[in-house]
Amino acid sequence: MSKIDKSPLIVQSNKLVESRYTLSVGEQRLVFAVASMIHPDDVDFYPYEITIRDLASILNIDLNNAYRDADKITDQLMQRVIVISEDDGPLKVGWVSSCKYNNKKGSISFRFDPSLKPYLLQLRRDFTQSKLTILAQFQSIYSIRIYQLLKQYRKIGHREFSVDELKEILGIDKGKYVQFKQFRAWVLNQAKKEFEKKDDAGFYQCDLSFNLETIREGRKINRVKFIIVNQVYQETLPFMDTKSIFPVEPERSSEKELLEKLEYFGIPPLRAKSHINDLGEEKTQQILDYYNDRLAAGKVDKKCGAFLAYLLREKITGKSGFEADQEGAKKKKKTLERNRKFELEKAAEKRFSELEIKFLQKDENYRDEIVQKFESSLHPVVLKSFRENGVNSIQFKEQFLEFADEYL
Prior knowledge:
Layout: E1 9-13, H1 14-17, H2 25-35, E2 48-51, H3 52-59, H4 66-79, E3 81-86, E4 89-94, E5 96-102, E6 107-112, H5 117-120, E7 127-131, H6 132-135, H7 141-152, E8 158-162, H8 163-170, H9 180-195, E9 208-217, E10 220-230, H10 253-264, H11 269-279, H12 281-296, H13 306-314, H14 319-361, H15 364-377, H16 380-389, H17 397-404
Protein backbone atom coordinates (compact mmCIF):
# COMPACT_ATOMS: atom_id res chain seq x y z
CA MET A 1 0.00 0.00 0.00
CA SER A 2 1.62 3.24 -1.09
CA LYS A 3 1.26 6.36 1.02
CA ILE A 4 -1.62 8.61 0.07
CA ASP A 5 -0.09 11.71 -1.48
CA LYS A 6 -3.06 13.57 -2.86
CA SER A 7 -5.88 15.66 -1.49
CA PRO A 8 -9.49 15.56 -2.68
CA LEU A 9 -9.78 16.84 -6.24
CA ILE A 10 -12.53 18.96 -7.76
CA VAL A 11 -12.86 18.39 -11.50
CA GLN A 12 -14.99 20.91 -13.43
CA SER A 13 -15.48 21.62 -17.10
CA ASN A 14 -13.90 24.88 -18.21
CA LYS A 15 -17.34 26.29 -18.98
CA LEU A 16 -18.29 25.79 -15.35
CA VAL A 17 -15.08 27.47 -14.18
CA GLU A 18 -15.92 30.50 -16.36
CA SER A 19 -19.61 30.58 -15.46
CA ARG A 20 -21.30 33.47 -13.66
CA TYR A 21 -22.33 32.92 -10.04
CA THR A 22 -22.06 34.36 -6.56
CA LEU A 23 -21.50 32.11 -3.54
CA SER A 24 -20.27 32.96 -0.08
CA VAL A 25 -16.96 31.43 1.06
CA GLY A 26 -18.84 28.83 3.11
CA GLU A 27 -21.15 27.96 0.20
CA GLN A 28 -18.19 27.58 -2.16
CA ARG A 29 -16.37 25.34 0.31
CA LEU A 30 -19.48 23.20 0.68
CA VAL A 31 -20.10 22.93 -3.09
CA PHE A 32 -16.47 21.97 -3.75
CA ALA A 33 -16.41 19.48 -0.88
CA VAL A 34 -19.46 17.74 -2.36
CA ALA A 35 -17.96 17.92 -5.87
CA SER A 36 -14.78 16.25 -4.60
CA MET A 37 -16.90 13.18 -3.75
CA ILE A 38 -17.75 12.55 -7.41
CA HIS A 39 -15.97 9.49 -8.75
CA PRO A 40 -14.44 9.86 -12.26
CA ASP A 41 -16.62 6.99 -13.54
CA ASP A 42 -19.93 8.15 -12.04
CA VAL A 43 -22.55 8.23 -14.81
CA ASP A 44 -25.15 9.97 -12.67
CA PHE A 45 -25.30 12.17 -9.60
CA TYR A 46 -25.79 10.23 -6.37
CA PRO A 47 -26.69 11.62 -2.95
CA TYR A 48 -23.26 12.69 -1.66
CA GLU A 49 -23.27 12.51 2.14
CA ILE A 50 -21.27 14.64 4.58
CA THR A 51 -21.43 14.29 8.36
CA ILE A 52 -22.29 17.36 10.39
CA ARG A 53 -18.90 17.04 12.10
CA ASP A 54 -17.05 17.18 8.76
CA LEU A 55 -19.36 19.95 7.58
CA ALA A 56 -18.42 22.00 10.65
CA SER A 57 -14.74 21.52 9.77
CA ILE A 58 -15.28 22.42 6.11
CA LEU A 59 -17.23 25.57 6.99
CA ASN A 60 -14.94 26.41 9.92
CA ILE A 61 -17.87 26.73 12.33
CA ASP A 62 -18.32 25.63 15.92
CA LEU A 63 -19.63 22.07 16.14
CA ASN A 64 -22.13 23.15 18.80
CA ASN A 65 -23.74 25.52 16.30
CA ALA A 66 -23.23 23.26 13.26
CA TYR A 67 -26.88 22.19 12.82
CA ARG A 68 -28.13 25.76 13.01
CA ASP A 69 -25.47 27.12 10.66
CA ALA A 70 -25.78 24.17 8.28
CA ASP A 71 -29.52 24.75 8.04
CA LYS A 72 -28.93 28.40 7.15
CA ILE A 73 -26.22 27.75 4.56
CA THR A 74 -28.14 24.93 2.84
CA ASP A 75 -31.21 27.20 2.59
CA GLN A 76 -29.04 29.83 0.92
CA LEU A 77 -27.37 27.30 -1.37
CA MET A 78 -30.73 25.98 -2.59
CA GLN A 79 -31.52 29.50 -3.85
CA ARG A 80 -28.22 30.17 -5.62
CA VAL A 81 -28.28 30.30 -9.42
CA ILE A 82 -25.37 29.69 -11.77
CA VAL A 83 -25.33 31.01 -15.35
CA ILE A 84 -23.42 28.85 -17.85
CA SER A 85 -22.75 30.04 -21.38
CA GLU A 86 -23.96 27.36 -23.82
CA ASP A 87 -23.83 27.40 -27.63
CA ASP A 88 -27.56 28.01 -28.04
CA GLY A 89 -27.92 30.46 -25.14
CA PRO A 90 -27.18 30.83 -21.42
CA LEU A 91 -28.31 28.12 -18.98
CA LYS A 92 -29.58 29.25 -15.57
CA VAL A 93 -29.60 26.45 -13.02
CA GLY A 94 -29.38 25.89 -9.27
CA TRP A 95 -26.31 24.18 -7.82
CA VAL A 96 -28.14 21.49 -5.86
CA SER A 97 -31.56 19.97 -6.39
CA SER A 98 -31.95 18.64 -2.84
CA CYS A 99 -30.41 18.60 0.63
CA LYS A 100 -31.58 15.74 2.87
CA TYR A 101 -30.97 15.75 6.62
CA ASN A 102 -30.23 12.29 8.03
CA ASN A 103 -30.97 12.86 11.71
CA LYS A 104 -30.09 9.37 12.94
CA LYS A 105 -26.70 9.42 11.21
CA GLY A 106 -25.93 13.07 11.88
CA SER A 107 -25.29 13.88 8.23
CA ILE A 108 -26.62 15.74 5.20
CA SER A 109 -26.94 14.27 1.70
CA PHE A 110 -26.59 16.58 -1.29
CA ARG A 111 -27.58 15.97 -4.89
CA PHE A 112 -26.42 18.24 -7.72
CA ASP A 113 -28.96 19.52 -10.23
CA PRO A 114 -29.14 17.09 -13.22
CA SER A 115 -28.45 19.95 -15.67
CA LEU A 116 -24.88 20.10 -14.30
CA LYS A 117 -24.04 16.54 -15.45
CA PRO A 118 -22.15 17.66 -18.61
CA TYR A 119 -20.01 19.95 -16.44
CA LEU A 120 -19.11 17.59 -13.57
CA LEU A 121 -19.41 13.98 -14.78
CA GLN A 122 -17.05 11.84 -16.88
CA LEU A 123 -14.97 14.74 -18.13
CA ARG A 124 -12.30 13.69 -20.62
CA ARG A 125 -11.26 17.05 -22.08
CA ASP A 126 -11.55 20.82 -21.47
CA PHE A 127 -11.61 20.52 -17.68
CA THR A 128 -9.76 22.02 -14.73
CA GLN A 129 -8.64 20.17 -11.60
CA SER A 130 -8.29 21.92 -8.26
CA LYS A 131 -7.30 20.58 -4.86
CA LEU A 132 -9.88 20.98 -2.13
CA THR A 133 -7.22 21.75 0.50
CA ILE A 134 -6.06 24.77 -1.53
CA LEU A 135 -9.53 26.14 -2.29
CA ALA A 136 -10.75 25.68 1.26
CA GLN A 137 -8.05 27.86 2.83
CA PHE A 138 -9.02 31.05 0.97
CA GLN A 139 -10.98 33.62 2.95
CA SER A 140 -12.16 35.75 0.02
CA ILE A 141 -14.88 34.60 -2.36
CA TYR A 142 -12.96 36.26 -5.18
CA SER A 143 -9.67 34.51 -4.37
CA ILE A 144 -11.35 31.15 -4.90
CA ARG A 145 -12.71 32.14 -8.31
CA ILE A 146 -9.49 33.85 -9.49
CA TYR A 147 -7.46 30.81 -8.46
CA GLN A 148 -9.62 28.51 -10.62
CA LEU A 149 -9.51 30.91 -13.59
CA LEU A 150 -5.70 31.00 -13.41
CA LYS A 151 -5.41 27.26 -12.75
CA GLN A 152 -7.25 26.71 -16.03
CA TYR A 153 -4.48 28.61 -17.91
CA ARG A 154 -1.54 27.43 -15.82
CA LYS A 155 0.19 25.65 -18.72
CA ILE A 156 -0.24 28.71 -20.97
CA GLY A 157 1.34 30.93 -18.33
CA HIS A 158 -0.86 34.01 -18.60
CA ARG A 159 -4.49 35.04 -18.87
CA GLU A 160 -6.07 38.33 -19.92
CA PHE A 161 -9.51 39.80 -19.14
CA SER A 162 -11.31 43.03 -19.63
CA VAL A 163 -12.01 44.51 -16.20
CA ASP A 164 -15.77 44.41 -16.82
CA GLU A 165 -15.64 40.77 -17.97
CA LEU A 166 -13.66 39.70 -14.91
CA LYS A 167 -16.05 41.52 -12.58
CA GLU A 168 -19.00 39.80 -14.25
CA ILE A 169 -17.44 36.35 -13.87
CA LEU A 170 -16.68 37.09 -10.20
CA GLY A 171 -20.27 38.20 -9.60
CA ILE A 172 -19.33 41.77 -8.64
CA ASP A 173 -22.17 44.25 -9.03
CA LYS A 174 -21.56 47.06 -11.53
CA GLY A 175 -21.82 49.69 -8.80
CA LYS A 176 -19.14 48.05 -6.66
CA TYR A 177 -15.42 48.82 -6.94
CA VAL A 178 -16.09 51.40 -9.67
CA GLN A 179 -12.57 52.79 -9.44
CA PHE A 180 -9.89 50.33 -10.56
CA LYS A 181 -7.69 51.09 -7.55
CA GLN A 182 -10.52 49.82 -5.32
CA PHE A 183 -10.94 46.68 -7.42
CA ARG A 184 -7.19 46.10 -7.34
CA ALA A 185 -6.88 46.63 -3.60
CA TRP A 186 -9.90 44.66 -2.39
CA VAL A 187 -10.02 41.88 -4.98
CA LEU A 188 -6.81 41.37 -6.94
CA ASN A 189 -4.26 42.23 -4.25
CA GLN A 190 -6.23 40.23 -1.67
CA ALA A 191 -6.11 37.18 -3.94
CA LYS A 192 -2.35 37.58 -4.48
CA LYS A 193 -1.84 37.93 -0.73
CA GLU A 194 -3.76 34.70 -0.06
CA PHE A 195 -1.97 32.83 -2.87
CA GLU A 196 1.42 33.75 -1.39
CA LYS A 197 0.58 32.93 2.23
CA LYS A 198 3.07 30.59 3.93
CA ASP A 199 2.66 28.13 6.79
CA ASP A 200 4.65 28.12 10.03
CA ALA A 201 7.46 26.20 8.35
CA GLY A 202 7.78 28.80 5.58
CA PHE A 203 6.12 26.77 2.79
CA TYR A 204 3.60 28.19 0.34
CA GLN A 205 0.08 26.84 0.88
CA CYS A 206 -0.96 27.48 -2.73
CA ASP A 207 0.64 26.11 -5.90
CA LEU A 208 0.46 29.35 -7.92
CA SER A 209 0.42 33.12 -7.70
CA PHE A 210 0.55 35.93 -10.27
CA ASN A 211 2.05 39.21 -11.30
CA LEU A 212 -0.42 41.73 -12.70
CA GLU A 213 -0.07 43.87 -15.81
CA THR A 214 -2.60 46.61 -16.48
CA ILE A 215 -3.58 47.74 -19.99
CA ARG A 216 -4.96 51.22 -20.57
CA GLU A 217 -7.33 52.41 -23.24
CA GLY A 218 -6.95 56.16 -23.11
CA ARG A 219 -6.63 57.24 -19.49
CA LYS A 220 -8.67 54.31 -18.09
CA ILE A 221 -7.41 50.84 -17.18
CA ASN A 222 -9.72 48.56 -19.15
CA ARG A 223 -7.83 45.28 -19.22
CA VAL A 224 -5.69 43.20 -16.86
CA LYS A 225 -3.20 40.48 -17.69
CA PHE A 226 -2.27 37.86 -15.09
CA ILE A 227 1.26 36.46 -15.45
CA ILE A 228 0.91 33.08 -13.71
CA VAL A 229 3.75 32.17 -11.35
CA ASN A 230 4.15 28.54 -10.23
CA GLN A 231 5.00 27.99 -6.58
CA VAL A 232 6.45 24.96 -4.81
CA TYR A 233 4.17 24.38 -1.90
CA GLN A 234 3.81 21.96 0.98
CA GLU A 235 0.41 20.35 1.08
CA THR A 236 -1.32 19.52 4.33
CA LEU A 237 -3.29 16.35 3.67
CA PRO A 238 -6.84 15.85 4.95
CA PHE A 239 -7.48 13.11 7.56
CA MET A 240 -3.73 12.83 8.29
CA ASP A 241 -2.87 15.97 10.22
CA THR A 242 -4.80 17.71 12.99
CA LYS A 243 -3.55 21.07 11.66
CA SER A 244 -5.24 20.39 8.34
CA ILE A 245 -7.46 23.05 6.76
CA PHE A 246 -10.25 20.65 7.78
CA PRO A 247 -9.25 19.94 11.38
CA VAL A 248 -11.02 16.67 12.10
CA GLU A 249 -10.61 14.37 15.05
CA PRO A 250 -7.77 11.87 14.52
CA GLU A 251 -9.24 8.59 13.31
CA ARG A 252 -8.64 5.32 15.06
CA SER A 253 -5.78 3.51 13.34
CA SER A 254 -8.14 0.99 11.69
CA GLU A 255 -10.36 3.74 10.29
CA LYS A 256 -7.35 5.66 9.05
CA GLU A 257 -6.07 2.51 7.32
CA LEU A 258 -9.46 1.96 5.69
CA LEU A 259 -9.46 5.56 4.43
CA GLU A 260 -6.04 5.09 2.90
CA LYS A 261 -7.09 1.83 1.22
CA LEU A 262 -10.24 3.35 -0.26
CA GLU A 263 -8.33 6.39 -1.51
CA TYR A 264 -5.64 4.10 -2.93
CA PHE A 265 -8.31 2.37 -5.03
CA GLY A 266 -9.67 5.67 -6.36
CA ILE A 267 -12.46 6.57 -3.92
CA PRO A 268 -12.45 10.35 -3.25
CA PRO A 269 -11.42 11.05 0.40
CA LEU A 270 -14.62 12.69 1.63
CA ARG A 271 -16.69 10.04 -0.10
CA ALA A 272 -14.51 7.32 1.46
CA LYS A 273 -15.12 8.82 4.90
CA SER A 274 -18.85 9.00 4.17
CA HIS A 275 -18.94 5.28 3.23
CA ILE A 276 -17.16 4.28 6.45
CA ASN A 277 -19.55 6.39 8.54
CA ASP A 278 -22.50 4.81 6.74
CA LEU A 279 -21.36 1.18 6.56
CA GLY A 280 -19.14 0.88 9.61
CA GLU A 281 -15.56 -0.38 9.58
CA GLU A 282 -16.39 -4.10 9.55
CA LYS A 283 -18.74 -3.94 6.59
CA THR A 284 -16.40 -1.62 4.68
CA GLN A 285 -13.54 -4.08 5.23
CA GLN A 286 -15.72 -6.97 3.97
CA ILE A 287 -16.41 -5.04 0.77
CA LEU A 288 -12.71 -4.27 0.37
CA ASP A 289 -11.82 -7.95 0.88
CA TYR A 290 -14.34 -8.98 -1.75
CA TYR A 291 -13.06 -6.32 -4.16
CA ASN A 292 -9.48 -7.50 -3.62
CA ASP A 293 -10.51 -11.12 -4.28
CA ARG A 294 -12.12 -10.20 -7.58
CA LEU A 295 -9.20 -7.96 -8.47
CA ALA A 296 -6.73 -10.82 -7.86
CA ALA A 297 -8.90 -13.16 -9.94
CA GLY A 298 -8.78 -10.73 -12.88
CA LYS A 299 -12.53 -10.14 -12.75
CA VAL A 300 -12.39 -6.33 -12.45
CA ASP A 301 -12.40 -4.59 -15.83
CA LYS A 302 -11.78 -1.05 -14.60
CA LYS A 303 -8.98 -0.76 -12.06
CA CYS A 304 -9.69 2.91 -11.22
CA GLY A 305 -12.19 2.09 -8.46
CA ALA A 306 -15.48 2.24 -10.39
CA PHE A 307 -16.44 -1.31 -9.37
CA LEU A 308 -15.44 -0.68 -5.76
CA ALA A 309 -17.53 2.50 -5.78
CA TYR A 310 -20.48 0.40 -7.00
CA LEU A 311 -20.00 -2.21 -4.24
CA LEU A 312 -19.83 0.50 -1.57
CA ARG A 313 -22.82 2.38 -2.93
CA GLU A 314 -24.98 -0.76 -3.19
CA LYS A 315 -23.63 -2.16 0.13
CA ILE A 316 -22.61 -5.46 -1.48
CA THR A 317 -20.39 -7.09 1.12
CA GLY A 318 -19.39 -10.32 -0.64
CA LYS A 319 -20.09 -13.09 -3.08
CA SER A 320 -23.52 -13.84 -1.72
CA GLY A 321 -24.75 -10.37 -2.57
CA PHE A 322 -23.08 -9.75 -5.89
CA GLU A 323 -23.23 -13.27 -7.28
CA ALA A 324 -26.84 -13.63 -6.19
CA ASP A 325 -27.58 -10.56 -8.29
CA GLN A 326 -25.58 -11.99 -11.18
CA GLU A 327 -27.12 -15.46 -10.93
CA GLY A 328 -30.57 -13.96 -10.64
CA ALA A 329 -29.97 -11.93 -13.78
CA LYS A 330 -28.67 -15.02 -15.62
CA LYS A 331 -31.65 -17.12 -14.54
CA LYS A 332 -34.02 -14.40 -15.63
CA LYS A 333 -32.26 -14.19 -18.99
CA LYS A 334 -32.41 -17.97 -19.47
CA THR A 335 -36.11 -18.03 -18.56
CA LEU A 336 -36.83 -15.23 -21.04
CA GLU A 337 -34.83 -17.03 -23.74
CA ARG A 338 -36.65 -20.32 -23.03
CA ASN A 339 -40.04 -18.63 -23.14
CA ARG A 340 -39.08 -16.83 -26.32
CA LYS A 341 -37.95 -20.07 -27.94
CA PHE A 342 -41.21 -21.76 -26.92
CA GLU A 343 -43.24 -18.88 -28.37
CA LEU A 344 -41.30 -19.03 -31.63
CA GLU A 345 -41.80 -22.79 -31.88
CA LYS A 346 -45.55 -22.42 -31.24
CA ALA A 347 -45.77 -19.66 -33.83
CA ALA A 348 -43.88 -21.77 -36.39
CA GLU A 349 -46.07 -24.79 -35.67
CA LYS A 350 -49.20 -22.69 -36.17
CA ARG A 351 -47.87 -21.21 -39.38
CA PHE A 352 -46.93 -24.59 -40.90
CA SER A 353 -50.32 -25.98 -39.89
CA GLU A 354 -52.02 -23.10 -41.74
CA LEU A 355 -49.79 -23.66 -44.81
CA GLU A 356 -50.60 -27.37 -44.82
CA ILE A 357 -54.32 -26.63 -44.76
CA LYS A 358 -53.93 -24.15 -47.64
CA PHE A 359 -51.94 -26.70 -49.62
CA LEU A 360 -54.53 -29.46 -49.10
CA GLN A 361 -57.34 -27.11 -50.15
CA LYS A 362 -55.81 -26.75 -53.63
CA ASP A 363 -56.93 -29.12 -56.37
CA GLU A 364 -54.84 -32.22 -56.97
CA ASN A 365 -53.26 -31.05 -60.26
CA TYR A 366 -52.10 -27.79 -58.67
CA ARG A 367 -50.63 -29.69 -55.70
CA ASP A 368 -48.75 -32.01 -58.06
CA GLU A 369 -47.38 -29.01 -59.93
CA ILE A 370 -46.01 -27.49 -56.69
CA VAL A 371 -44.43 -30.82 -55.72
CA GLN A 372 -42.72 -31.05 -59.14
CA LYS A 373 -41.37 -27.53 -58.78
CA PHE A 374 -40.03 -28.39 -55.33
CA GLU A 375 -38.35 -31.51 -56.71
CA SER A 376 -36.62 -29.51 -59.40
CA SER A 377 -35.22 -27.16 -56.75
CA LEU A 378 -33.57 -29.97 -54.78
CA HIS A 379 -29.95 -30.97 -55.04
CA PRO A 380 -29.49 -34.36 -56.75
CA VAL A 381 -27.96 -35.74 -53.56
CA VAL A 382 -31.22 -35.31 -51.60
CA LEU A 383 -33.65 -35.77 -54.46
CA LYS A 384 -33.62 -39.58 -54.12
CA SER A 385 -34.41 -39.33 -50.40
CA PHE A 386 -37.32 -36.98 -51.13
CA ARG A 387 -38.83 -39.36 -53.69
CA GLU A 388 -38.56 -42.20 -51.21
CA ASN A 389 -40.05 -40.36 -48.21
CA GLY A 390 -42.38 -37.73 -49.73
CA VAL A 391 -43.50 -34.29 -48.58
CA ASN A 392 -44.98 -35.55 -45.29
CA SER A 393 -41.70 -36.87 -43.96
CA ILE A 394 -40.05 -35.15 -40.99
CA GLN A 395 -37.03 -34.43 -43.17
CA PHE A 396 -38.87 -32.48 -45.88
CA LYS A 397 -42.29 -31.35 -44.60
CA GLU A 398 -41.34 -27.92 -43.20
CA GLN A 399 -38.89 -27.26 -46.02
CA PHE A 400 -41.56 -28.09 -48.59
CA LEU A 401 -44.23 -25.93 -46.92
CA GLU A 402 -41.77 -22.96 -46.82
CA PHE A 403 -41.23 -23.48 -50.55
CA ALA A 404 -44.94 -23.91 -51.27
CA ASP A 405 -45.79 -20.71 -49.39
CA GLU A 406 -44.76 -18.69 -52.45
CA TYR A 407 -47.45 -20.37 -54.53
CA LEU A 408 -50.13 -20.67 -51.87
